[in-house]
Amino acid sequence: MVSAPFLVSAPGKIILFGEHAAVYGKPAIAAAVSLRSYLLTTKHAAEFSDCVTLEFPDVKLQYSWKIHSLPWNVVPKRSMDTVRPPSELNTALMEALEQSLVAVLNPLQRSAALAFLYLYLCLCSPDMPGMTFSVRSTLPIGAGLGSSASVSVCLAAALCLLSGEVSPPETKGDDDSDFNAANYASIELIDAWAFLGERCIHGNPSGIDNAVASHGGAVMFQRMTKGNPNVRESMRNFPPLKLLLIDSRQPRRTAVQVANVATLLQNYPLVTEPILNGIQALTSEAYKLLLMPKEKCDDVWEERLRELVRVNHGLLVALGVSHPKLEAIRMAADELEIGETKLTGAGGGGCAITLVKRDVEESRILELKERLEGHGFEVFETSLGGFGAGCLLPTKSDAAEWEEWEDKLFSLHHMLGLGDREDIQKTVGVGSIDGWAFW
Ligand SMILES: Nc1ncnc2c1ncn2[C@@H]1O[C@H](COP(=O)(O)OP(=O)(O)OP(=O)(O)O)[C@@H](O)[C@H]1O
Ligand SMILES: C[C@@](O)(CCO)CC(=O)[O-]
Ligand SMILES: [Mg+2]
């Protein structure tokens, strides 16, 4: 069992093909990105030891509950036969939590707090010491890059560590791809709990975002249908793709976009089902292309992949999940003949990706970036694949450093406008400092 303080982290993701259709059991392809969320768990001072506190400055939420005021009495008893949680939320607990959240009205804050409370009550006990759970993210929030899943995975990982459900990652061999059975069992459990966090945040998730945030790398994912388990195939030799990632900065919530598609499907099943089937077919084509050996990834291969990007975007437009700002991004990339563009994630705003032609001159890419930034869009540089969830436990020697991080990055300073993405990455970021270990 691990005790506070400690840090956990999980990545965001880019869906390359198949969003929305994924909710209906169709395959989708996604990869982790280097932008991540970080969760610091600290113990309260003695005078607040009967409280649990959330500090979510990215969504401007700070809230404390008296631990004993929470509805522990309705927490479902865990089955002795299985360590995995059920995939459905418990209705009685969800209803009881309404009471604990009456003062948190903003939907962005409320859904994150709900995910926390649900997992906290299921995984912890009322006799645990008072703690603060502070989240900061280098991901744009509500922008299609899986911020909700990366936060859910962080919450699940921290609470599983505190309750002893999982142990910190065991050191792998020299080759980090080495399989370790204990780590695998831990990350599967974290993924399953994070799925419930995602359910609290957006109702009907497919599970692809939390799967990527937990396991990292690139995957083909297919949600369980008719009792068949989820399929999660890791795509190890994912080809290097030249992508631009552009945030339209148009806020939207995944919950709303997913619900809109459900309404379309209900109102026009004969129209909507073929669109979802079309997305399924193109994702299967893309999967075959992405698994091709490197020597076959020639110009024709590249053109076919770009065509699939274009068709995927068109079908998402037909589902009603684009936005004029996403169309403006697509048109700018089309005009400069940079490559093909699609929205990524739930759409309705948020991010688009452009799959850049290999032979495009850097000057044209620069021109596109300038044009987009001139319109108030943000162009990100990130790499695909990479680590999934991990944790950083302090050693005695760096106690002072931990206090500094807490102050600089995770305290309420951010609400006053201090501390940005680069600060987070530089100070505690995976890849910037030593000590991170991954399940
Ligand atoms: N850094 C954060 N701190 C607190 N809550 C967060 C943070 N990041 C995300 N969230 C929670 O996740 C919600 C956004 O999730 P949503 O699913 O709508 O978008 P996304 O995950 O960024 O995009 P997509 O689901 O399309 O990949 C926020 O409203 C908030 O509840
Ligand atoms: C829109 C969606 O397909 C992707 C969101 O990143 C929803 C999901 O699969 O959970
Ligand atoms: Mg999300």
UniProtKB/TrEMBL annotation:
> Where is the organism placed in the taxonomic lineage, from the top?
Eukaryota, Fungi, Dikarya, Ascomycota, Saccharomycotina
List the InterPro entries.
GHMP_kinase_C_dom (IPR013750), GHMP_kinase_C_sf (IPR036554), GHMP_kinase_N_dom (IPR006204), GHMP_knse_ATP-bd_CS (IPR006203), Mev_gal_kin (IPR006205), Ribosomal_Su5_D2-typ_SF (IPR020568), Ribsml_uS5_D2-typ_fold_subgr (IPR014721)
Tell me the Pfam families matching this sequence.
GHMP_kinases_C, GHMP_kinases_N
Q: What does this protein do?
A: Mevalonate kinase; part of the second module of ergosterol biosynthesis pathway that includes the middle steps of the pathway. The second module is carried out in the vacuole and involves the formation of farnesyl diphosphate, which is also an important intermediate in the biosynthesis of ubiquinone, dolichol, heme and prenylated proteins.
Q: Which GO terms describe its molecular function?
A: ATP binding; metal ion binding; mevalonate kinase activity
Q: Which domain of life is it from?
A: Eukaryota
- Domain named GHMP kinase C-terminal: residues: 303-366
EC code(s) of this entry = 2.7.1.36
Where in the numbering of this chain does the GHMP kinase N-terminal domain appear? 124-214
Q: Which reaction does it catalyse?
A: (R)-mevalonate + ATP = (R)-5-phosphomevalonate + ADP + H(+)
Q: Where in the cell is it found?
A: Cytoplasm
Principal localisation: cytoplasm
Name the SUPFAM superfamilies on file.
GHMP Kinase, C-terminal domain, Ribosomal protein S5 domain 2-like
Q: Record's GO cellular component, any one?
A: cytosol
Give the organism, scientific name.
Lipomyces starkeyi NRRL Y-11557
Assigned protein family: Belongs to the GHMP kinase family. Mevalonate kinase subfamily.
Q: What class of enzyme is it?
A: transferase
PANTHER family per the record? MEVALONATE KINASE
Q: What is this protein called?
A: Mevalonate kinase
What are its GO biological-process terms?
ergosterol biosynthetic process; farnesyl diphosphate biosynthetic process, mevalonate pathway; isopentenyl diphosphate biosynthetic process, mevalonate pathway
Annotated keywords: ATP-binding, Cytoplasm, Kinase, Lipid biosynthesis, Lipid metabolism, Magnesium, Metal-binding, Nucleotide-binding, Steroid biosynthesis, Steroid metabolism, Sterol biosynthesis, Sterol metabolism, Transferase
List the pathway annotation.
Answer: Isoprenoid biosynthesis; isopentenyl diphosphate biosynthesis via mevalonate pathway; isopentenyl diphosphate from (R)-mevalonate: step 1/3
The answer, when asked if Magnesium is one of the entry's keywords, is: yes
